[in-house]
Amino acid sequence: MDWIARVVDHDPNALAALYDALVGRVYGLALRITQSVSLAEEVAQDTFWQVWRQAPRFDPERGTALAWIMTIARSRALDAFRRIQTNECELGPQILDRLECPGEETPPDLLAAVQERHVLHAALASLDPVPRQLVSLAFFRGLSHDEIAGYAGLPLGTVKSHIRRALIALRQRLPPDAHSKR
């Protein structure tokens, strides 16, 4: 896997190839640990973001690139799992009442929600790796532009530009009715 060497040189095509080759394995490991689809997706994104940032730290004498990446994924998945375990809380009586008696509200159409999610993920997948990661940090992790800049080690203006261009690209790729639902 000379992809790591190319990632060290900040070759986004190498990261994309590495992602395509290993995302299934990373996601599978994360899913087994977290038992949550959304957390596993987050862990997979975080893993490849960390590979992008820390590729110069990879030492082939200490192990294979696959082992290094899977170790990162395992660590991220365990962190995510621990985070949800410590953040769990009991539902209060008011919330339980609303769950038991939803009133006139109807549950969302599950099929439509799944289809919307697939459309969004396809649009996100069409972005270059760095903007995709930055958008993921902003929307799925809830980080501010300042926090993303610190996390990514990028200038604030660069982060804002990448996210702005990525959002414009997403708007062009998503169906018009997806824009008005939010």
Folded structure, characterized:
With 182 residues, the chain is mainly alpha-helical. Helices cover 75% and strands 0% of the residues. It has two domains: 85 residues, Rna Polymerase Sigma Factor, Chain: A, CATH 1.10.1740.10; 69 residues, Arc Repressor Mutant, subunit A (Orthogonal Bundle). It is built from ten helices and no strands. Helix 7 packs across helix 9. About 9% of the residues have low confidence. Keywords: Sigma factor, Transcription, Transcription regulation. Belongs to the sigma-70 factor family. ECF subfamily. InterPro entries: RNA_pol_sigma-70-like, RNA_pol_sigma-70_dom, RNA_pol_sigma70_r2, RNA_pol_sigma70_r4_t2, RNA_pol_sigma_r2, RNA_pol_sigma_r3/r4-like, WH-like_DNA-bd_sf.
Keywords:
182 residues; mainly alpha; Rna Polymerase Sigma Factor, Chain: A; Arc Repressor Mutant, subunit A; transcription
List the helices and strands and how they pair.
Layout (H helix, E strand, L loop, with lengths): L2 H6 L3 H23 L2 H18 L10 H23 L5 H8 L9 H16 L3 H11 L5 H8 L3 H18 L2 H5 L2
